[in-house]
């Protein structure tokens, strides 16, 4: 006697998470880059007004109602264009030159959400939930994507 195995139909490409007993799934991937910035409009003596650098961490979060392939929200490899964008345009750059807004974590997160929605979202399976930008281990700014229903 062999132990019955689930038929391939149960492990196929369609994993619908909705309906009775429905669950929610979120995945995340963290990217890093090094960059400098200086914030304008602060009172004299504010340390963020001086040119300085951070080891930035950027985390994207995605969700989906239906999984693809072996059971993915999105194949992490499909996020590589986002990593390439960060590496090319942000790594070892002066963010004051890269962005046309003040380079705060908040405004960087908003910029990255908009870029992701425009450039990556259309060609991946999942949908973006949020982008979190962190300049230090203890601080972060999270820009969330409002659901469109
Ligand atoms: Zn800073």
Automatic annotation (TrEMBL):
Its EC number is 4.1.2.50. It is an enzyme of class 4 (lyase). Coiled coil: none annotated. The keyword Lyase applies. Pfam families: PTPS. Its cofactor is Zn(2+). Belongs to the PTPS family. QueD subfamily. This is 6-carboxy-5,6,7,8-tetrahydropterin synthase. The gene is queD_1.
